[in-house]
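Q: Structure for this?
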Amino acid sequence: MRIVLLGAPGAGKGTQCKRIVDRYHVAHLSSGDILRKERAAGTALGKKAQGYMDSGALVPDELIVAMMKEAIDEISETGFILDGFPRTVNQAKELDKALDAGGIPIEVVLNLEVNDTIIAERMSGRRSCQKCGAVYHVRNLKSQVEGVCDYDGAVLIQRPDDDLAVVKKRLKTYHEQTVPVIDYYEGHLTVNHIDANQGADAVDKIICEILDGLP
Ligand code: AP5
């Protein structure tokens, strides 16, 4: 199963990916998580990406495409879910070129649709595990012990780019540069639009129905 998961910042991509990976045993490749790891490790890529991420802008395509191609080449599982990538039409085209050349094209596109007002509420209450990438919410999706990850016991943090001013910029960037990616995929694949304003379990149920119904 080769899946692209689209959606605005805070739409619930990371939350749903965790569940999809547990159920379908595909590799989870999140461009945001990979960039945060590069930053934490102080690599050249991480240093270049830092300013863009903190301001709510996109990291330049050439850096992201090379990073994600390398990540896809490294996975051993038969399937994958891409989270946060592609985010521009140019990234989507480059991805298609690389996957078509390897005979492993994208099979499913899922698009999480959420109102911007709900997004702002979700981002302000988000808490993330720096170790495994699990995401929680202080009201909607609490960890069992406050401030501690259920999976590995690591301390949960608030991401610096969840500041309201940066969230607004990220949403603007999404509408300008990532929404056209939906049209791009609609040109050659079925895009499954999912009402993700609902709770995480309801969204999960819809995604399962789509993925279980695949030939
Ligand atoms: P990235 O890390 O990809 O951030 P994002 O796409 O902005 O998405 P988020 O991780 O913020 O949100 P999400 O949709 O995963 O939501 P979550 O599940 O956490 O990118 C960060 C930055 O890196 C970018 O700004 C850019 O600079 C750079 N970058 C990354 N990829 C790039 C690319 N391809 N090209 C260029 N630059 C790139 O959920 C959010 C909160 O809501 C959580 O608290 C969660 O518990 C809660 N929640 C989730 N679902 C529900 C629900 N259904 N109901 C109630 N609460 C919910």
